[in-house]
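Ops channel
N.P.: pipeline sanity check, posting one input/output pair.
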């Protein structure tokens, strides 16, 4: 197994090495290739994602990305590294599982996945205008909607919720909703399909998150709803995600570069560590390795291990040590399960 690691900027440089240590503990044969991307890379090389980074990820098929810092103002020639990676590698789905961890702030009954369309919608980056008037393109295609519907269907256990705003945007969101619904109905007649306006979905996610199983949404709605949902796993420092494409995947913690704590060695590495577990489960089809990592995290948290964002005093390093101390050996004879629901084999204890 090969993994390209792209620490990026800020706390990405602290949490990615931490996650790699945990991955190596369960996968001793893992081959790790270092690559660069981000704001610092842009300042040094004039591009936020060098071609050799893209080549490395294409060839390895899997990457772990930390976070990048993006300037709040427009900088000529700069495009966010993660958006560039998503487009260049056609990482068409952003998958964010939200599962409660044993923490006071978490909702113990929550176990949902947000599947967000990652290549179009409002994020095509086609903006024009001036100080008086500006416009942005919001593109929806049948092909991209069908393919995200197909992926979401694979993750569903009992229910799929299609999020849209077709009452206001009947052409774009209407197309998304209809294409996704038809696709899901065709390949998963066994699951419940419901539709929900994005504002109503936000209300239900805040109030009754346990009612959701898989949520599928266009780019912007999925982005916003998944940060909201991250509250229920226990906080931003704990929320993992993975970008999936055809034969290529980039896992990344949901959080950003956290300039307010960068360099202090106190960033919570759990979001990055759990993103590594998602690579094991969804990309390498090693559910036992994924469970070993996730259970190690659970047990460490249960034992009271906590970085400052969780009200504790542990450093990033000490948190990793706590997780490593709670990881049990992965049983021999790892299954190679490329079929079925990617969530099969999750430990629901
Ligand atoms: P952020 O996620 O970096 O930080 C938000 C707050 O959460 C901060 O107070 C931070 O200290 C805290 N936090 C985040 N991750 C943490 C962790 N692992 N442990 C402990 N505390 C943690 O979001 P913010 O501040 O809005 O953005 C900072 C920079 O990151 C910006 O340049 C933004 O563009 C970029 N960003 C990059 C993302 C990516 O690379 N995918 C995603 C979100 C933001
Ligand atoms: Mg976001």
């Amino acid at each position: 197994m090969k993994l390209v690691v792209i620490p990026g900027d800020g706390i990405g440089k602290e949490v990615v090495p931490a996650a790699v240590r945990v991955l190596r503990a369960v996968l001793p044969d893992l081959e790790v290739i270092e690559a660069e991307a981000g704001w610092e890379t842009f300042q040094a090389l004039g591009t936020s994602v060098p071609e050799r980074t893209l080549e490395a990820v294409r060839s390895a098929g899997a990457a772990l990305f930390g976070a990048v810092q993006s300037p709040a103002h427009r900088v000529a020639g700069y495009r966010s590294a993660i958006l560039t990676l998503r487009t260049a590698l056609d990482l068409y789905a952003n998958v964010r599982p939200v599962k409660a961890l044993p923490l006071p702030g978490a909702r113990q009954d929550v176990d949902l996945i947000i599947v967000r369309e990652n290549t179009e919608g409002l994020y095509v980056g086609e903006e024009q205008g001036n100080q008086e008037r500006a416009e942005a393109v919001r593109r929806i295609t049948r092909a991209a909607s069908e393919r995200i519907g197909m992926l979401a269907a694979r993750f569903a256990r009992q229910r799929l919720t299609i999020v849209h705003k077709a009452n206001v945007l009947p052409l774009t969101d209407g197309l998304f909703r209809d294409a996704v619904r038809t696709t899901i109905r065709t390949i998963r007649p066994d699951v419940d399909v419901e539709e929900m306006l994005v504002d109503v979905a936000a209300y239900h996610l805040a109030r009754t998150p346990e009612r959701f199983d898989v949520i599928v949404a266009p780019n912007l709605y999925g982005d916003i709803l998944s940060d909201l949902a991250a509250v229920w796993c226990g906080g931003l420092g704990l929320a993992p995600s993975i970008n999936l494409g055809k034969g290529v995947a980039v896992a990344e913690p949901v959080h950003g570069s956290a300039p307010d704590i960068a360099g202090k060695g106190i960033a919570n590495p759990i979001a990055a560590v759990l993103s590594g577990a998602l690579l094991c489960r969804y990309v390498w089809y090693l559910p036992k390795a994924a469970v070993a990592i996730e259970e190690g995290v659970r047990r460490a948290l249960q034992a009271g291990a906590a970085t400052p964002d969780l009200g504790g005093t542990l450093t990033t390093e000490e948190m990793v040590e706590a997780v490593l101390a709670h990881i049990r050996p992965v049983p021999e004879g790892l299954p190679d399960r490329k079929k079925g629901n990617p969530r099969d084999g999750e430990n629901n204890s």
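N.P.: looks fine end to end. The chain is about 40% helix and 20% strand.
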